[in-house]
Design brief:
Elements lengths: L9 H16 L20 H18 L5 H10 L18 H16 L12 H13 L24 E3 H18 L2 H16 L3 E2 L2 E2 L2 E3 L13 H17 L4 H13 L30 H15 L4 H18 L25 H12 L28
Antiparallel strand pairs: 1-4, 2-3
Helix pairs in contact: 1-12, 2-3, 2-4, 2-12, 4-5, 4-6, 5-6, 6-7, 6-8, 8-9, 8-10, 10-11, 10-12, 11-12
């Protein structure tokens, strides 16, 4: 348990996040001889390791602790695949557009945070994100549902007949952030297209984000379950479009609407403490679900750097959630392992895992967001080399 009582005390926040990160990395064996860099052991899917590297990148960004930097670079480069686009042959049975996209999001964070570049003879962070964007743009499917990405990439995979909000949201997020980073209008046009389609198909209704629907029914069977990460991925995308369009009223209205509707993800019993309302109260969260709050926390904090007017209202949510998460990190023999139910305070909920550690780490290190520089761009501080044609051959 981390009993920092003042969420403004930088040293105590850094000490807590250092321990949480250390406990998280006990699950990772990709740096062990004979194991595969960039993979987590069962029961974790490939995408979650890419997402975990995003948390490690944020950890370095917020704290300056570089002890995991070589491990990040090793793992993220090992998984790029033969075409440098995160289409890794040994993951084809479960490769979703969202899975591939989460690796691109981490590469894009590395570019935005001016994380040290890979060796010159290896693919660069910005080019990797551009490669994923290009491969996914080619998969935009107008045959069913009027557009959109399918969940799975390959036809034989379970879920190929499903178009889901997270796959399209990740694509939207990448497009919006590439627009801001590069200044290229083509990316912004795609971001507009994806957002508008998500509304038109009914996956966004009054800023509620529903899970998806099947192509076999032309997306008329919307699954109305709502997850934190769907709202989060669209929030940061909208914030970047707000920034790219110099504060347009359209994107401000969308950003405000998304943020306001996230109120459903805060407990009615413990004010301003985040919870995964679709599964957490019922004890039905699975391995993936345990990590979803990490992404909402991550993207809320990042939103404040590109839409600064959001800072005060975002921090009104982050501070209480971070304090509650710190109390919930009271499990295991060490008394520092994090559970999922932040609403339970110091009464550990008995669960442990990468997702729980990631979620606690992201919400707690987000307390430091005002102390770090804004994301760099191609023309302002960026050091990552891009390739607009990457992944399109």
């Amino acid at each position: 348990m981390f009993a920092f009582t003042n969420a403004h005390v930088t040293d105590s926040i850094k000490a807590a996040t250092r321990q949480i990160t250390y406990d998280m990395m006990k699950y990772y064996d990709g740096n062990v001889t004979g194991r595969v860099p960039g993979n987590l052991p069962d029961p974790y899917y490939w995408w979650q390791c890419g997402a975990m590297f995003g948390s490690l990148l944020d950890y370095y960004y917020y704290t300056g602790d570089d002890q995991y930097n070589d491990l990040i670079t090793q793992g993220m480069l090992h998984q790029v695949g033969p075409n440098d686009d995160y289409m890794t042959p040994n993951q084809t049975k479960t490769t979703g557009n969202d899975d591939q996209g989460f690796w691109a999001l981490s590469a894009l964070s590395a570019a935005e945070q001016a994380f040290p570049n890979p060796p010159e003879d290896r693919p660069q962070w910005l080019a990797l994100a551009q490669a994923v964007f290009n491969t996914q743009a080619l998969r935009w499917d107008t045959q069913f549902c009027g557009g959109g990405l399918r969940w799975q990439v390959f036809t034989l995979n379970v879920g190929y007949d499903y178009k889901n909000t997270i796959s399209n949201g990740v694509f939207f997020n990448i497009a919006a952030r590439l627009a801001k980073y590069t200044g290229n209008q083509t990316y912004a046009d795609w971001a507009e297209r994806v957002y508008d389609w998500t509304v038109d198909v009914g996956f966004i209704q009054d800023f509620h984000f529903f899970d998806g629907a099947h192509t076999t029914l032309n997306c008329n069977d919307t699954n109305r379950v709502q997850w934190t990460y769907n709202a989060g991925v669209y929030m940061l995308g909208a914030a970047n479009m707000y920034n790219f369009t110099d504060g347009s009223e359209k994107w401000k209205a969308r950003l405000d609407g998304i943020f306001n509707q996230t109120s459903m993800f805060y407990s009615p019993n413990v004010p301003n403490v985040m919870f995964e309302q679709a599964c957490e109260p019922y004890g039905t969260c699975d391995t993936d679900n345990f990590s979803f709050k990490a992404y909402l926390a991550r993207w809320m904090a990042a939103t404040t750097k590109v839409a600064p007017y959001m800072y005060d209202q975002v921090m009104e949510k982050i501070r209480p959630s971070a304090a509650a998460a710190a109390l919930q990190c009271s499990g295991g023999e060490s008394g520092t392992l994090c559970g999922m139910k932040w609403t339970d305070g110091a009464k550990w909920d008995g669960t442990t895992g990468v997702g729980q550690q990631m979620s606690a780490l992201e919400i707690m290190q987000s307390l430091l967001v005002s102390r770090v520089a804004a994301p760099v761009t191609q023309d302002a501080g960026g050091i990552s080399k891009g390739d607009p044609s990457a992944g399109s051959s």
